[in-house]
Amino acid sequence: MLLSILRVLTYILGIAGSAFILPLAVAMADSDIQTALAFLSPLLAGWTVAAAFWFAVRKRPKIFDVKSAFGVVGLIWVAVCVFGAMPLYFSGAFPSFTDAMFESVSGFTTTGASALHEVENLPRSINLWRCETHWLGGMGVIALAVALIPLLGIGGFRLIKAEATGPDKGKLTSFIANTAKSLWLIYVMLTVIQAALLHLAGLGWVDSLAHAFSTMGTGGFSTRNASVGAFGSPAAEWICTAFMLLASVNFALYYKLFTGRVREVAGDSELRAFAVVVLASTAVVTALESSTATALSQTLRDTAFQISSVISTTGFMTADYTGWRPPSQAVVLMLFFIGGCSGSTAGGVKVVRWTILAKEIVNEIRRIVHPHQVFTLRINGRPGYESLIPVVASFILMYFILVLATTFAGAISGLDVFTALTAAASMVGNIGPAFGQLGPTANYGSLPAALKWWYCFAMLAGRLEIYTLLIMIARVCRVPKTRTQD
Amino acid sequence: MTIFIVGAGFTGMQLARMLVLERNKVVLIDNDAEKVRHASDALDCTVLEADGNSIEVLEQAGIASAQAFVALTGDDEVNMIACQLVDSAYPAVLKIARVRNYAYYSAVDSAGRRMRASGSDAVRAMYGMDAMVNPDVEAAGAIQRAIEHGAIGNVIDLKNDFMLTTLGVGADSAIAGRRMRELSGVEGWNGLVAFAEQETGALIPRGDMVVNVGDTLGVVSRTSDLARIAQLAQAERETFRRIVIFGADRVGSMLIPLVAAKRYAALWRSIFGGKPAENRREVIVVDRNADRCHEIAERHPHVHVLCGDITDEALMNEEDLYSCDLIVAASGNYELNLVTAAYMKSKGANKAIALTASTAYGAVARKLGIDVAIPMRGTVVDSILSHLRGRNISAIHSVCNRSFEIVEGDISGKSRFAGKKLRELGELEGEFLLLLTRGPDGVTEMPNGDTVLDAGSHVVLIVMSGDAELLAKICGK
Hints:
By secondary structure, chain A is mostly helical. Chain A is built from 21 helices and 1 strand. Helices cover 65% and strands 0% of the residues of chain A. Chain B folds into 4 domains: 2-133, NAD(P)-binding Rossmann-like Domain (Rossmann fold, 3-Layer(aba) Sandwich); 152-232, Alpha-Beta Plaits (2-Layer Sandwich), CATH 3.30.70; 242-376, NAD(P)-binding Rossmann-like Domain (Rossmann fold); 380-475, 2-Layer Sandwich (Alpha-Beta Plaits). In chain B, strands 3-2-1-4-5-6 form a 6-stranded parallel sheet, with helices on both faces. A 6-stranded parallel sheet of chain B has the order 14-13-12-15-16-17, sandwiched between helices. The longest helix of chain B has 16 residues, at 102-117. Strand 1 (373-374) of chain A pairs antiparallel with strand 14 of chain B.
């Protein structure tokens, strides 16, 4: 079992290492030798270990049981984050390993909270790598591994399930590798389209690609201090708005769209609820923020961008929402706790969980009036979702416990309570910016190291939807004596 | 005719009795010694204690020379296998099976229909069954027809928008006290009385018969004329906005999709209650079995499913079920159906339909105030008989507790009556003829003395039960 775990771990590090090629090429093009070496050394190390393992144990069977699947996924994510932090640290761009690690975790979990206040001085390659971590973490490194090489064998679906988001995970095609390939293909296509559009809107190639990575992964890192607003291009802002929303929709729906199941997509309960939330909150905030001083088109653009950025858990900024009127800020705060759709690259609680709970609440009210009536819970017109109610309810409870614990951690470290609370929601929901001291214009660099490590944990727990990470911790910490009991 | 019947249960016995009455040679097979003893005492036919799905047993009993094989055991699979077995050895025998599992029934039925529609001559009967009978499907259909026509009585749909409806004659009826021949003079009476049930018994009415209050008439009419006829007979007719269905087992679960609304009820109304709007219909299903309730709720999102005991007064008050427009008692417990329907009606339900064990309960049901009683067992025998009566007969509906049969069929060229006018038929005077349609696309008419019985016409007749001779005379063999 240990062998299987190590093998998968090394293979995935090999794949993550291959992702260094892109920033490495940019560093070479800029003839930035120090940064190039910072990418090249972990790349070679990763490949060497992976190759060694491949030659040594390729003939052994690949089997994962349920218990280890969750543990392995947690372990892989921690390992990938550490690996991704290496070039950031070696290149000297980050003052400490803690900061590099925070940046890497924030990248792979698609949070987008930066430890730096100044990113425009960084080498282009480092900035591209920061955004690429979003892209890799958004769809999931394990899904990528399954799509590229058939290395996970029988337990593959379990691993992907432990990494994917949402309460109800299924396969699109009969083979999990085909499902992973289809989803990654759609992901790549959307990314390429967005990068091309951004380039047309006037951005340079590296900027376009970096922001496309960041948008599609719903991350939030930018190559500019002032985020997307720095380009001063309305077109680029609208493109980002659209693709942030596209990236927070369940990717399975694109697959259905391509296979002609349009009716299913139109009838998707989660998509409808998501659309209602986005449109309603945009309308409300636009109405609240519109004034004679600014043109309506400008207000609408800013509102739509910020709303999309928060609900998709991206964290790009073109306007500072902490300067908005209190009711508008309240709307944004609500969006902090909603998140995108299941099966997307977005974080947060996920719309479908709230949909299930809302339907259950309606049923509960009707049950009081009609105690003998039999009620069903339908999602996408299909019954049988009652069994998910306890799963969803306990997830949401866990989610809020984690948010409150993280709030406490922030408050101990000297943040005011409002900042600590919103930062906690931002970390667990993988959003990025918060309110107060840690608003869109601030950064996380000045926080104490211990709090950064706790935030790393909170971001990973949020991205892996809590249980995966808890199981990993439970397995790692378990006393060997109890091993016979299961 | 030699007919094999496997399974000597209620339906098997009833069918055997009908066939023996028509002087057929019947071989009844059952593997239950007690049933066999009872059957051989009661019926004048061969009764064997053996397994009906054993080809050796069937061969010894002479299946080779039989015309028909009817499988009526309590086991769908045994019935289907038995038919398949007979089919593989003796394909010429007409094979009929009772199939109660709706999944089997609908799958085989639709597949068979699809294959026949493909037009190929080589199409074989599915599972060797020339015909399947499903009592639940037929009962659910009968209930649906009764509901759609306002629950004034049992409804039989006939050709070209004609129908036969049983009507009770109300106290202030415009036709009460009149003779049969005077009815044609009553404004708006556009119907033909096929049979009447009076206190003295059931009869095919002659011109001098007087209609009394409390009689039940079987009236043939156009669908569009029914409203006026029902009004003249003072049988109240309604459209239903709030229907309570008691029992969601076989018949009930089949009935729900036939009558249920296709839209959700408004949320505020499902919380605060109240009657549905004029053009909406609310269907409430009550069943005691929690699993069944859950399944129905999953399958039919627009239906309110209540899991509880229909005899629980608290539940009925809680959901205000007494104020419903119609109660349909369609559970598998036929006695409880009668009691429930009668009780609900006495508590304020406007109309009541009850699923009963057999036609014998019809009179009792009417006395209890139940508007329509749908017999469960009679329909199976009818539909089997219609298959056995030859190719000219397309349907048989028993009425008046099996006193008469309403027969739909075609007049063949071999008929002794073909080409004759009704008044030339002497003693019969054509009272047996209810409707006649000339040719495949012809106009349907109600007959008079000058109507000619052309060969090739489609006819609807009423005959005494078991009067196969008259049928043979009219339609030809």
